[in-house]
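The data layer described in this paper is built around a simple, fixed record for each protein. Such a record has a labelled line for the sequence and another for the backbone structure tokens. For reference, a complete record is included directly beneath this paragraph.
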Amino acid sequence: MIHYIKRVGFLHHHLHLGGAEQVSYNTAELFASWGIHSTFIALTHEPKEFMPPSGDLDDIWLLPEDCDLLDRVCIEGLIECIKTCQLDILFVCSSSPSVPLGVREATGCRLVFWSHVQPFWEYTHLLERKKLRRHKSILKWLEWQTIGRLKYQILSKFKAENRRINLEQIKFYDRFIVLCPEYKEQFVKVLDLDRVTADKIIPIYNTIDLVPNPPLGKAKEIVFVGRLDPLQKRVDRLLEVWSKMQYQLPDWELKIYGNGQDLEHLQRMAQALKLERLHFCGYISDTSSVYQTASILCLTSTFEGWPMVMAEAINYGVVPLVFDCCAGMQGILGANDSCGVRIRPFDIGQYAHTLVALCRDEGRLERMRLAALERRRLFTREVNDERWARLLQDLS
């Protein structure tokens, strides 16, 4: 379909089973149907979790593992990869829009940043990291209550620096992909972008393959699926919610699917709160079995982009309950919350109250399941075909 582009690359920090990697995989499948070959580039690779659509390990290029993506050694390795693989376009899919200086000049490759998070997430991440340190000691707590709160929440220089960097990077890249039109509007408004710069920002939805005939007879299961990350995913909030409601729903279970650095802390927290019918199920490579039986998906994240787990959940008729922390939540569920519920961030009491009411109202759950199966049709792969074709043609 696109005769001018023959080879592209997807640059990630790590190739494992994550939402961004799954989206790159899906996109590589689409490109393959157009005769475009994809190479995946990263610092590390988990073969049990991620394989290219071709199934060929030659389609994976590993950079030096003990480096940062902006280190000179990594940049040299990236330039070698682009030249060896003859890449026409490199999609930079890292968590932050790093500027790989010298790559374009050395290779002539077009550079596209693909943001998988909400705009200006870096400032929110910084605040969460600083807040987390306060629990380590009484001195850290006092530092946050005095200097830290003033420095990071009241003073605005960190926000200003974050905005300056984002503006610089949008101007640097040939295109800048965001997850929904609302994120483009946010960048344009906050950064006061001119029309030429604004036109570089392209909204492209993350998409799914529709599951034929998903089962509507669900078990009394509430699930979380994702990384156990103490800064972004904040599963500790979900455990707090469960502690408030577990005795009101004696026949329901909470299942946590995923691994991560917060696992031990969450396990200790569960013991301290004497949580019942809570199961840490570990990593699962095929989540379809989870969504086949689950009734409700719970997310308690501080920030997100376009959570693939939510799109996957509604694909199976699972009802999401989330904190309304970003525009992507409304983008998936719709403005009227017909197939899920958004809760004001980060009201634990309201979240628990809503979850109990939802579990007890089978009629409402049934209506939401049916609405979810209609809503999912907005996110089939075909919705982006025209956008991808135009973007590739513009860059050729």
The chain has a mean pLDDT of 88. Residues 138-154 form the longest helix (17 residues). The first strand starts at residue 7 and ends at 11. Residues 221-379 form a domain with the Rossmann fold fold (CATH 3.40.50.2000).
